[in-house]
Amino acid sequence: MPIGRRTFIAGASASIGLALTRPACAQSRIKIRDLYKTQAEFSAEAKAFAASREIITVPGFMAPPLKADASFFVLTQRPMAVCPFCETSADWPSDIVFVRTRDTVDAVAFNRPIITTGILELGEAKDEETGFVSLVRLVDAQFEII
């Protein structure tokens, strides 16, 4: 049975729309444990994501916030009842990520899993607003409870 012009146009339009929108589940994803090759070296996958500056997703847990009305939080590999704040990069644990968000963060219970999306940055940096020193960051980030 031949396809009519209206059916063809509607189908083509839908296909183009699907191609232009990228669902969150199709984004590149990395687990916190896969950010490091060794304790002192980032994995090839993490380096590639940081170099590409593409938006990635990282699952984890929100550590209790350091202050109210902040636009940042610490993403942890497992639930933590206290924030693993570090004073120097030498003490930086390999199972946390500093997250700088677009907006003010509404705290989530420390044991609720979340998915965070943002741009991965690697290497020692000191956040201007907080003074927080980090080795791994997600910037321009947002999150959702899963």
Describe this structure in words.
Helix content is 17%, strand content 36%. The relative contact order is 0.19. The longest helix has 16 residues, at 5-20. The strands form two sheets. A five-stranded mixed barrel has the order 4-5-6-8-7. Strands 2-3 form a two-stranded antiparallel sheet. The chain is globular, with a radius of gyration of 19 Å. It is of the alpha+beta class and 146 residues long. It is built from two helices and eight strands, in the order αβββαβββββ.
Question: How are the secondary structure elements laid out?
Answer:
Elements: H1 5-20, E1 28-29, E2 36-38, E3 41-42, H2 44-52, E4 55-62, E5 72-76, E6 96-101, E7 113-126, E8 133-145
Parallel strand pairs: 1-4, 6-8
Antiparallel strand pairs: 2-3, 4-5, 4-7, 5-6, 7-8
Number of strands: 8
Helix content: 10-25%
Strand order of the largest sheet: 4-5-6-8-7
Largest sheet: 5 strands, mixed, barrel
Quaternary structure of the protein: single chain
Query: Residue-averaged pLDDT, rounded?
Result: 80
Order of helices and strands: HEEEHEEEEE
Low-confidence stretches: 12-25
Q: In one word, what is the shape?
A: globular
Distance between the termini: 45 Å
Strand percentage, roughly? Answer: 35-45%
Number of separate helices: 2
The structural class is alpha+beta
In angstroms, what is the radius of gyration? 19 Å
Which properties best describe this structure?
5-stranded mixed beta barrel, 8 strands, two-stranded antiparallel sheet, 146 residues, alpha+beta, 2 helices
Quick gist of this model?
Helices cover 17% and strands 36% of the residues.
